[in-house]
Amino acid sequence: MDQQKQISILKELLRQIDAGANADAGVQYKVPSSIYADRELAAQEWEQFYKNHPQMIGLSGDLPEPNSFLTLNDFGVPIIATRDKDGRFRAFVNACRHRATRVESAPRGKRKLFVCPFHAWSYSSSGELVAIADESDFGPVDKSCRGLIELPAVEAAGLLFVHPQPDGDLDVEALLSKPLLNELSSIGFDTVVYGAEKTIDKNLNWKLANDTFGETYHFQKLHKDTLGQLFIGNNTHLEEFGRHHRFTTANLAIHEMRKLPEEDWQIQFATFVGYHLFPNIQMFWTGDTVSLVRIYPDVDNPGRSISHVSIYFTPEAYQNAIAMDDDAREQAVKDTYKFEEGATRSPSIEASLEVFTSTIEYEDYVMGEYQQQAAESGLAGEAIFGRNEPVLHHFHRSYRDAMGLPHFETVE
Ligand SMILES: [Fe+2]
After folding, report:
1. How far apart are the CA of 223 and the centre of ligand 1, in A?
2. What is the distance, to the nearest Å, from the Cα of residue 249 to the centroid of all Cα atoms in its chain?
3. Of the candidates 12, 34, 30, which has an alpha carbon nearest to the alpha carbon of residue 21?
4. Most CB atoms closer than 10 Å: which of 163, 241, 275, 363?
5. Do domains 3-52+192-403 and 55-169 have the same CATH topology?
């Protein structure tokens, strides 16, 4: 991100902090709680945003070398993603061409050859059918026509995108816009190293999970003992890129940064810079780490969603993290919410994941579960998105545009 942009965002956050007032969208919206429980909406979302929409599945560091692979099954098609022997990112339907069982079940790893566990047909990392067991008994098969079914796959700015349909249109520049793609490219998402992951499976609609990442109004309330120890709260910078956005909020280091000359300001050390890639991606850059959250509905239940959280590190921070001994790792987890300790030490893998347990899983998503229960009762009425919640406004406006729904009514 260019320096002038960083300075202008940081100045706006400082202005809000000094004024004691959050961003002001100038309008409040009425939000019918039914949007989180409606089964017809959920079915339309699944078709439109998941089964037939480009999906960001990870970062380049998830496939660190030739023959690395990932498997996933989050949006209606079992996927095996690989970096082939030539280093190219590829994606296939994870189904053997014999009887369609999964050729690989491990979540990630490295293999030159995927051997189907059912009858041992084998495939290369570029999807070719290499060998058929007992081929003379089985009868002739034209191997050149029976490779794994390939899906559109594009690696751009260090992000991995797949289209779940073999004939799907996957134009990442058109999807994200050139300005956003350029900005993402400038950050270095292509250089970070995969560290760890966790899955949060909870009883809240996928949009409520997204909403968790949509305002700073709650930081010093719900998170006063967790994230609120690190982030100031009640300050928000939002920049929209079509349906996507960047969302920035200050941590305590912004007070030190303001004492430095502006040319030395570095946004990643005084804020988290969050990118929301519509519809279901939240990605946070904090300098040493990147946290990726991919949020998926349960196709059969609008009241459940699955969030996959992956943590990545710069190569240097990763080396420091894996060099920590057990005592240092344990201490880092205890110190997760001690700002001074965190500011002077390289991040640990365990502490980086811990934030998503204590703050997101045990605080934010618990609120989401309560909201879900109320929404499903049919008696929750309308929620309100306040003037200080512009990020929520943008996500829901994008959502309603995409779904062909009218915008929410404003509170008069
Ligand atoms: Fe929160």
Report:
1. 7
2. 18
3. 12
4. 275
5. no
pLDDT by residue (tens digit) across 74-103? 999 999 999 999 999 999 999 999 999 999
The architecture of the domain spanning 3-52+192-403 is Alpha-Beta Complex (3.90)
Residue 400 in contact with residue 41, Cβ under 8 Å?
Answer: no
Residue 50 CA to residue 43 CA, distance in Å, equals 10
If you measure from the C-alpha of residue 226 to the centroid of ligand 1, how many angstroms do you get, rounded to a whole number? Answer: 10
| Pair of tokens at residue 363 | 């605080």
Kindly state the helix (H) or strand (E) to which residue 313 belongs, with its residue range: strand 301-313
How many Å lie between the centroid of ligand 1 and the Cα of residue 284? 13
Q: What's the CATH superfamily of 55-169? A: Rieske [2Fe-2S] iron-sulphur domain (2.102.10.10)
From the CA of 113, how far away is ligand 1's center (Å)? Answer: 43
The structural domains of the chain, with segments of one domain joined by +, span: 3-52+192-403, 55-169
The mean of the pLDDT values for the chain is: 97
Nearest one of 212, 245, 164, 232 to 362, comparing CA atoms: 212
Three-state DSSP state, 243: coil
